[in-house]
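Complex 511.
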Amino acid sequence: MEGEKGVEKKFAWGKTQNEAEEPIVSFAELMSEELAESLSKEDADEEEKYLKQLEFVLNSTAMDEVLLNTDGMTDEEVAIALQRQFDREDDVARAVQSTDTVHFTPERYHPKTAQESESDEEDLDELREIATDMLYAQLDAENARNSTRLHADGASSSTTTKHDIGVSGRRNADKTLNDRMNLTTGDMISGKINNRVYNSLLAFGKSDAKRQMRMKDKEEKATMDTSVDANTRLTLLKWINQGVIDSIEGIIATGKESAVLHAKQNENNEHYAVKVYKTTLSEFKNRSEYVKDDFRFKNPRGVLKIWAEREFMNLSRMTKHGLPCPCPFKLKKNMLAMSLIGNGGIAAPRLKNVQWEFFTDEERRGIYEQVEKIMCRMYKECLLVHGDLSEFNLLLNLENNQVFVIDVSQAMDLSHPRNLQFLTRDIANILAFFARIETPGLPSSVQLFNLITDLEMKEDDDLNVQVEQFSEENRAVHLRHDKSRPADLELSRYQEDKKANRGISPARDYN
Ligand SMILES: Nc1ncnc2c1ncn2[C@@H]1O[C@H](COP(=O)(O)OP(=O)(O)OP(=O)(O)O)[C@@H](O)[C@H]1O
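Predicted structure with adenosine-5'-triphosphate bound:
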């Protein structure tokens, strides 16, 4: 079908090859762009369809409340109304989990086959995230609302997130082929593409390449090779296509189990951190305390995704309570996008890396107090224990000396049987660090423990021993006070659905 060499090729519409407006691109290039476009279109379409359906279900649920609160109903009418409400709620819970067409009666619901969930699952995160936000808003509204009254403005349906219709609508429809350069992006792109996405990725590719050249350390090189792989780049490309981000500016850090990239959104001049969980599991062995006996870690394929999901959930809970931490807004497979802690795109340093000799006693004391408050609020308001808290997972904004907490994928709910032991370890780490930088007026570990938990451990006895003893004696006592918070409701619904779909115990799925 190709024209012979040397013979001027004419197109059907009369132009010669030289006059063609767009550069000729290889089949592989076209396929790559088409693939990326079609994938992101599928995502956006599915997301839009889903949002509409969910909005409809949530609004329908709200309508039923009016019926339920009508006085003077017979018992039979009340029973019917209750049944209807139950059915609606059931539909909402199912809608949260389903990417297929959502039907609005529970009897039509059927669990996916294992095969379907394998492939569909990967695209579910983003939808689950949006659905979760909406469900929280709905549940919050329900809690706040007087049971006999209904908001006239339907507040639940107006909840927006950075990545909903507005953002996904700003997709890069017009691609201009304007440049041809090499970029190793794995199988998906296989060589060259010419468009805005390419340019954005190119910037990343350059800094990536420069950094790789600088990297002498084998281990760090391995991190790059495994974290920013073809799939990661494909997801980044899709995010760029969807307008979620405009460019990847470089690498902020490579941690033990992740690479953290710096992403930028030009329109709002916002900077984001994209945490990419490594695709190798070698580091997870260091996490044996967390993963021991946990069925999820017997199947490595789902592990990274679950870590990202846990970090997303924990950060969401913390953000909701106003804790100083990154605000998560996008979750996809093993990638989590969140706000960048820092100034003007420069990431804030970890407490470990701060030059403490330039800080006064009062300043160090003030920074300690912020950390103390973070620990108290995480425990009391978020019902979480960090579990890996130290000077490595606390960032300091040098402009205003504000402390932020990061890296909460392993943070555990107070229902975790060993949460107090992990808390004790966090306390030891924090006090040891602040003692090292000569912070005045530090409490003892027992004092700090009691402050955080409101328990009454004795000053003179060893805290670890007391905690073990306390845990032993109070096995059946749950430290969680309020089990009916929206976040927990959502989580238990999510877990129930998972259980229904897969026959897996929800109790072991999350803490
Ligand atoms: N939202 C953020 N804003 C700015 N910097 C960040 C953000 N998230 C992570 N970082 C930087 O990336 C580094 C690694 O992130 P994080 O601690 O979450 O990953 P990790 O793989 O768990 O690392 P490690 O296990 O070594 O602590 C952090 O030490 C911090 O410097």
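The two ends are 60 Å apart (CA to CA).
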